[in-house]
Each structure stands twice: as structure tokens, then as C-alpha cells.
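Protocol step 4 of 6: structure prediction from sequence.
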Amino acid sequence: MADTLAAPPASPVKSALRTVELLEFFAGHRGLHSLAELQQRLGYPKSSLYMLLRTLTDLGWVETDSTGTLYGIGLRALLVGTSYIDGDHVVRGARDTLDWLAETTTETVHLARLDGTDVVYLTTRESQHYLRPMSRVGRRLPAHTTSLGKSLLAERTDEEVRALLPATLSGLTPNTLVDHAELARDLAATRERGYAVDREENVLGVCCFGAALRYRRPARDAISCSVPVARLTGGREEQIVAALLGARDRLERMLR
């Protein structure tokens, strides 16, 4: 009888939980931070936090400045993050198609994955033009601020989107949709046309077009093409969208 009972849920290991929270803090807050700042932000006992930092520094997950009093993310985190991208079957499978899309459009192309309320950039093909958006591999951005994220949110119902996103939406530019009702209307338009549009909502001067990859439900990956607004002339938007949707269809067939 006892063998058939479900095992109680495992309690988190405090030291492991603190390690992950500390590394995620560094990942989300660039630069170097003092012990006092970290203690204030994370709320750990100062002595425990110091010993954790010393251990992670010795292992290469955390680095310090020349004085040994300021701390930041270490090289080991980059190596592990790179191994995730190198080993991901979607990233591997999408390489040729992303190369084709970048060559066809001559613009910057991204592949990203939904993680909670954010999208994480997995790989990028840079624009062939001199002026271009910065490479974002490994960067997190709020899903509602990007065409990538909005294309993935549109794969969910309005109720699911409301439950997923925070009550207060952050704005990255004056054009970011921070009103839930306005965002819902934008997602409805995205579902109708089959792709999302970010009109300077993430970066001023840049328009992005994104399409979810529906090889699984609900979709978690999307591709996008970023174009400076100054180059969106004379039917350019239609050309970009046609190439983007062609790449999406190709990837969906392959990944299924």
C-alpha cells in the first residue's frame, strides 16, 4: 500500500536555490555589484552570501574587480550558456533557413524562445548594411515589447496572456504597448494576419516583423526580421513579410 502512495514534493535545497537566484540576478543586472548591494537586493545573511560568492568565484561562475570587493557574472556562465545554444536542435535545424532569410532580406534576423514573460534571443544573423541593431544572443526582453514575443503571445488566448503577463506592463520606448486592452487588440490583429509587428516599440528607429514557429503547441519559438524605419520604403515591408513567412513555413515543416 505504501509503495503506491505518491511521494511528497521535494523541498528546494536552500544553498542551490540561492546559487541560482544569485546567478540570475547577475544575468539580469549588468556590471559589478558590492556585497552590501547584493545583500540588500537578495536578502541573504551577509556571512552566507559572502561564502557563496567566494565559492562561485573560485569555480569561475563569478568574477571580481581588482579590489576583490565588487562581483559580477563569470566566464563559466558563458560556457554553459553557449553549450545550451550549441546543443539545441531547433537552433541547429534553423541555421540554413536563417541564413537564407538574412541573405534574402539583407536585414537582421533573430530566433528567440519564450521563457515566462520574456523572450530570450538564441541566435542572430546580422544585417548586411552598415547601420544595424546590436546582436542580442542570450539577451532577455519583455515579450510584449517585441514582434517575437507578440507573435508567441498571439498563439495563446487573451485569458492566457492576461494570466501570463504582469498587471503593469513595462515600456522600453514611447511606442511600447503598456495598456492590456491595446495589447489585446494588437494580438488579435496578429492572429488575423499571421505575423506580429513591432513599430519602434522595442528600439526607436527600428521596425520588426515576427512569426511564431508552430511545430509544437503552444508555440515557444519565433523568428523575426528587424529593419530600420528609414529603409521601409516602396513595398519593402511586403517583401520582408513574404520572406519571413516563407522561412516560417519552411522551418515548421522541418521541425515537425
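Step 5 (inspection) to follow. The beta strands are 33-34, 62-64, 70-73, 108-115, 118-125, 140-142, 196-199, 206-213, 221-228.
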